[in-house]
Design goal:
The structure holds two protein chains of two kinds. By secondary structure, chain A is α/β, with parallel strands linked by helices. Chain A has a single domain, classed as P-loop containing nucleotide triphosphate hydrolases (Rossmann fold), CATH 3.40.50. Chain A has seven helices and ten strands. In chain A, helix 3 packs across helix 4, helix 4 crosses helix 5 and helix 5 runs parallel beside helix 6. The longest helix of chain A has 18 residues. Chain B is α+β, with helices and mostly antiparallel strands. Chain B has two domains: about 200 residues, no CATH class; about 140 residues, Cathepsin D, subunit A, domain 1 (Beta Barrel). Chain B has a six-stranded mixed beta barrel with strand order 2-3-8-5-7-6. A two-stranded antiparallel ribbon of chain B has the order 11-12. Classes of the chains: A alpha/beta, B alpha+beta. Chains A and B meet through helix 2, strand 6 and helix 3 of A and helix 1, helix 12 and helix 16 of B.
């Protein structure tokens, strides 16, 4: 059984009286450990698809199944709980909490989960901060970091709770190519080591180059779904 | 919870200028309330002190008949066994003095003008143990060395164009309803804080009144003074207990406490308290708008942050909690500053007082008080102000917090 399955997902937005279709019947299966890149021009529905998978948006029609359970019929509270347990987001503009330090930002998802003791949280956060290479920056605030460092914190924050799926919306859009390479390699390492599923929405060719699977979305429909059978790490 | 508080606190500290401005709105509201409360309590206390020390005393005793007809101040109903009653009262706990008084109606004339007056016959030996007229005396108190000594309210003397050592004619009906007039030597004037005394009261001694009013030691009232307590309610308890005890012992007499005698005035005091509460509500409503605005601005500034938190799994109630904590911090800060400012100003008011007469100059304004007004400490009002400030902060931050929590995650994340 796939980790996630989208069946005939349609999403329309209303602009006044006008219906704007964002997704026009998307069928998609996502396996555990996928390193999947969704590409396509602006307005093709990439972000909408990511938001629906992440349960922060609801499809107009169709189903999103997780282990056979339809996520679209969950209440707001149930969706919040589902996200807390299974989903992490990485955003184009990092979106760190400016008043929290690096360590506190990364701690946040674990604190929300309310499952771990203080020392467990400390150990997990220390470990993930080391993995993303920010051990010397743990007590700094986001304003004291470079763009690349901020995105590393965002990745650490996304990965610290060991989610089933990490949804990354244009994670390298605000970074130069060197930093982008750096960030992708961190995510790739996590994917290989702990088999976290990554789904990217991106224009970045570099991300596409590293992806194991590339889906092309055009006018709200999947026009191509290509699975690469080689490991590409450069 | 700790994380929510931490985020809220740091956000409050991050926007220092906005936080301070919002807190100042509350603090100004609260300090005005504390000060107003102090001034009103001080005014009430001063008025009650005036009443007790200048007119009603703590307890006034008369016969039932006299009490029923006291508007006309009849010289008919003397207290029987007055000496026995005075002796009994002086033995009681907390009593610092008791004195007889007999009131009468009359007219004062300077041969050109005539003014109606209320006369008070006083016992020159014991009157000062109950009434503190000597504090307001211009000239001398009764010497007792000559007949026909009189003391007048200062405003009355001014109206009549007379002063200390002048002579004036007093008309009155005697105990037997015969008209009498005599010339009196003015030994002193009373410039009290009670405009009524200043404008229409004359005092003569029992020795003088025996001849002038055929009084023959008729005593219509006995006034009692009790020692003052720091706690006003303790004082009223003492007064009530003594009044009960006298009633029990002398059941044929009317025993009235100052609270009964000044019920109309105390009723006005209660109305003033309601008025004060309405003022407080208005002031704090303005403060509430300040906090509402501050939290709302904070919400708008951090819409993306709200989106991120919601995407990470923050529940709606946790988002509400986050902003409410910000409101609470602003409330605590504002309330603390407000209480500190209010107490600071009040300390000055309690020690130095406020020269009311210099600012208002209203001896004839109808308000039974003038002079320097001193503030009163009211711990209850200070605690109430602090708590109310907090509640206002909480209520004012709830609405924008709820708005923040209701925001759609995708819209919040797209917000620029």
């Amino acid at each position: 059984m796939p980790l996630l399955e989208l069946q005939g997902v349609i999403k329309n937005y209303m602009k006044g009286e006008q219906i704007i279709p964002a997704l026009r019947g998307v069928d998609l299966s996502i396996e555990k450990g996928d390193f999947l890149s969704i590409v396509g021009p602006s307005g093709s529905g990439k972000s909408t698809l990511l938001n629906i998978i992440g349960c922060i948006d609801t499809p107009t029609k169709g189903k999103v199944l997780h282990n056979g359970e339809d996520l679209t019929i969950l209440t707001d509270k149930e969706k919040t709980y589902y996200r807390k347990e299974n989903i992490s987001f990485i955003f184009q503009s990092f979106n760190l909490i400016p008043v929290l330090t690096v360590r506190e930002n990364v701690e946040l998802p674990l604190i929300i989960e309310k499952k771990f003791t203080k020392s467990e949280i400390y150990d997990k956060v220390t470990n993930i901060i080391e993995i993303v290479g920010l051990e010397d920056m743990a007590d700094r605030f986001p304003r004291e970091l470079s763009g690349g460092q901020e995105q590393r914190v965002a990745i650490a924050r996304a990965l610290v709770k060991n989610p089933l799926v990490v949804l990354a919306d244009e994670p390298t859009a605000n970074l130069d190519s060197e930093m982008s390479e750096d960030i992708i390699s961190v995510m790739q390492k996590m994917n290989e080591e702990i088999h976290t599923t990554f789904i990217f929405s991106t224009h970045d060719l570099l991300v596409q180059k590293h992806a194991k699977r590339v889906i092309i979305l055009r006018d709200g429909m999947i026009t191509s779904d290509e699975r690469k059978n080689h490991e590409n790490t450069d | 919870m700790r994380t929510l508080i931490k985020i809220a606190w740091r956000n409050v500290m991050r926007n220092k200028r906005r936080t301070v401005l919002s807190a100042l709105v509350i603090s100004v509201g609260l300090s005005i309330y504390i000060l107003m409360n102090s001034i009103m309590a001080g005014m009430d206390r001063a008025n009650i002190d005036n009443l007790i020390e200048l007119s009603t005393s703590s307890i006034k005793i008369s016969t039932e008949q006299y009490a029923e007809d006291k508007e006309s101040l009849p010289l008919k109903y003397g207290i029987p066994f007055a000496d026995q009653l005075l002796a009994y009262i002086k033995e009681q706990q907390h009593v610092i003095g008791a004195t007889p008084r007999t009131q009468f109606l009359g007219q004062l004339s300077n041969w050109e003008d005539t003014m109606p007056i209320i006369g008070q016959v006083v016992d020159i030996k014991s009157d000062e143990t109950v009434f503190s007229l000597d504090n307001y005396l211009v000239g001398n108190y009764f010497t007792g060395s000559e007949e026909n000594e009189i003391m007048l309210g200062k405003d009355l003397a001014d109206e009549m164009g007379v002063g200390v050592d002048d002579y004036i004619t007093l008309y009155a009906l005697t105990r037997y309803d015969s008209r009498n007039a005599d010339e009196f030597h003015i030994v002193g004037l009373l410039n009290t804080t009670d405009p009524n005394i200043n404008l229409n009261t004359v005092l003569i001694s029992y020795d003088t009144a025996d001849n002038f009013l055929d009084l023959e030691n008729l005593i219509t009232e006995i006034d009692v003074a009790l020692e003052r307590r720091v706690s006003f309610s303790q004082f009223t308890n003492d007064v009530d207990e003594l009044a009960q005890s006298i009633k029990k012992e002398f059941s044929e007499l009317r025993v009235e406490t100052f609270t009964e005698l000044a019920s109309a005035f105390l009723g006005i005091t209660e109305q003033k308290k309601i008025f004060g509460s309405i003022m407080m509500l208005i002031i704090l409503a303005i403060a509430a708008v300040g906090i509402f605005n501050s939290v709302l601005m904070s919400v708008y500034e951090r819409i993306r942050e709200i989106g991120v938190l919601r995407a990470q799994g923050f529940e709606r109630k946790e988002i509400v909690g986050l902003f409410i904590w910000e409101g609470i911090f602003i409330g605590i800060l504002g309330s603390l500053i407000g209480v500190a400012l209010g107490c600071g100003f009040n300390l000055y008011l309690v020690i130095q007082g406020f020269p009311l007469d210099k600012f208002v100059g209203f001896q004839n304004s109808g308000i039974p008080y003038w002079g320097t007004l001193y503030g009163e400490w009211n711990v209850g009002a200070i605690i109430f102000a602090f708590c109310f400030g907090m509640i206002v902060a909480l209520a004012a931050s709830y609405l924008p917090s709820r708005m923040a929590s209701k925001m759609e995650v995708t819209k919040a994340l797209r917000f620029v």
